[in-house]
């Protein structure tokens, strides 16, 4: 079970400390996702984000990308559990920018304000999670923790932790949700019908054996 943990303060590194930190980080990388330090002191690298979304997301088709108005070319579906995406970002990118870039990469039409980025780490047989503020810098956190995801990993979740704020969703999104729910309801209904039909056949077969004359 996740244990909530307070956010840790940002410690600013000198140019030499930063250089040493990146060299140490790159020497431990096993998946070729290394960091690069530029002459202006800004560094770039990769982070992996696990998607843990309970509700369906709305995705735009290629024809409707870039439009501001809701489009009929939008589809809602559930992401599979454990879906992990890799982003190439810089040390200046904030949490809010990372969320926006992640949604844009997969043509997600939902409002970025509906989502929050969490950091997760393992310590003393416990899993700690902390919701990151919009102004934090994920690549800095990745650098400080090192490349091992056991030390630190990022998770995208819905922003709301209580009741769903349905008024935050657009009409097309709500219609898509209803369509998904209707489909799931029909699928479950068919499963129940098949189950009870099989049970009825077995019961009739058993009764026929009991009441068979002679």
TrEMBL record:
GO CC annotation: cytoplasm; microtubule
Q: Where in the cell is it found?
A: Cytoplasm, Cytoskeleton
Q: Which ranges carry the Ras-associating domain?
A: 71-161
Protein name in the entry: Ras association domain-containing protein 3
Q: Which organism is it from?
A: Eurypyga helias
GO MF terms, alphabetically ordered: zinc ion binding
- Segments forming domain SARAH: 163-210
Taxonomy of origin reads:
Eukaryota, Metazoa, Chordata, Craniata, Vertebrata
One protein family per Pfam? RA
State if Cell wall biogenesis/degradation is listed as a keyword: no
Does the entry feature the keyword Kinase, yes or no? no
Which of UniProt's keywords are assigned here?
Cytoplasm, Cytoskeleton, Metal-binding, Microtubule, Phosphoprotein, Zinc, Zinc-finger
The primary site where this protein sits is cytoplasm
**What's the superkingdom here?**
Eukaryota
Q: What biological-process GO terms show up in the record?
A: signal transduction
């Amino acid at each position: 079970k996740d244990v909530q943990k307070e956010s840790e303060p940002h410690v600013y590194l000198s140019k030499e400390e930063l250089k040493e930190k990146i060299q140490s980080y790159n020497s431990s990388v096993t998946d070729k996702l290394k960091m690069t330090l530029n002459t202006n002191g800004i560094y770039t690298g990769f982070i992996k984000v696990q998607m843990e979304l309970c509700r369906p997301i709305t995705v735009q088709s290629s024809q409707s990308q870039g439009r501001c108005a809701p489009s009929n070319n939008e589809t809602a579906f559930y992401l599979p559990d454990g879906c992990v995406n890799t982003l190439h970002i810089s040390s200046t990118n904030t949490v809010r920018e990372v969320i926006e870039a992640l949604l844009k990469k997969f043509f997600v039409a939902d409002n970025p304000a509906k989502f929050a980025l969490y950091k997760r780490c393992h310590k003393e047989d416990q899993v700690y999670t902390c919701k990151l503020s919009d102004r934090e810098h994920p690549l800095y956190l990745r650098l400080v923790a090192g490349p091992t995801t056991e030390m630190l990993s990022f998770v995208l979740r819905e922003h709301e932790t209580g009741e769903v704020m349905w008024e935050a969703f657009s009409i097309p999104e709500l219609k898509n949700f209803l369509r998904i729910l209707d489909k799931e309801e029909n699928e479950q209904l068919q499963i129940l019908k098949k189950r009870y039909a099989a049970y009825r056949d077995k019961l009739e077969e058993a009764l026929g054996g009991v009441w068979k004359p002679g």
